[in-house]
Amino acid sequence: MKKLFTISLALLTSCFYAQEEDLELKEKKFTFNGSVDVYYRTNITGPNDNIGTEADPLYLAPGSSFANLPGFALGMANVIASYEGEKVGFVADLVFGPRGTDAVFASPMYSSTGNIVNQLYAYWNVSKKVKLTMGNFNTFLGYEVISPTANFNYSTSYLFSYGPFSHTGLKADFTLTDDLSLMVGVMNDTDLTEFNPTGDYAAGLQLGYKSQFLNFIYDPSFMEIDFTGGFDVTKTFFLGINAAYLTLEDNGGGFAGGALYPQYTFSDTFTLGLRAEYFMEDGDFGAIGTGLPDSSVFATTLTGSFTINDLTIKPEIRLDSASDDAFLDTDLVPTKTLGSFLVAAIYKF
């Protein structure tokens, strides 16, 4: 009987331990997801062939990032593995293709390869109101992001293209109230993702209130303040807002601008959205491509979004109108405007 009791107690204890381990596993969540995007792009009012030399190709397109290649072109393949526990977790975000490579243009080691790390960080939920994150993470500034799945428009804005893309460092997120949040961080020089080759550091801050965010970053080479937000005007009409001001150190110029993102949902499968952006550069910033020290551009982008299960089709018409000659027309004559069309296919898994 004593032996039987001992064996029964051991089995019961093992059962309790197994149940506890099962509960711990259920609290942790491993996910694997990502996306693939491709597109076709053509100029309506300008040439579409390679007008530069073979060694120095020049494709005529807006001065903003991504979606600038002519004809049928590749975006990127994005693969994201994440592990979420009650206290700790990580994200490993890998990108393959032109869009991903362009996003890490300033990376010291791997920016020229097509196989890169977009994000790689670990986090610790110190408490319900404090979270620490360390590693490489996409920027907290701006309305748009690198992944096309999180943007409504497929082409990107000037404000996004010339603000930070990524940071590597340590940040702390604080939930102050149900509506109020605060983030503070210390990071390497902006967009230097793998390590710190300069010995300098940047400081970042974000204050959030009801999904409206005021962002600030001070980097050794620049300072930027940015507002990002949006409002559900009705159940079917959303209005996004972005405004930013950046100034370079040593009187190197900078930029300022704002963008509105009205979007109307017609059905569960179709939404129509507009991006109306004004962007002004100061000094020799060189973003718009006019070659002049001070220029501005007004860019209007109309995008439709058709959803078919996990596939999204986005036809898009864009008109860029600059204050000075920044483009070429079909006769290769300098002009202030460029009209273009693209259609993108984005699959999210």
TrEMBL record:
Identify the stretch annotated as signal peptide in this record. 1-18
InterPro entries, per this entry?
Answer: BBP2
What keywords tag this UniProt record?
A: Signal
The protein's name in its UniProt record: Porin
Organism of this sequence: Flavobacterium jejuense
The organism that produces this protein has a lineage beginning with:
Bacteria, Pseudomonadati, Bacteroidota, Flavobacteriia, Flavobacteriales
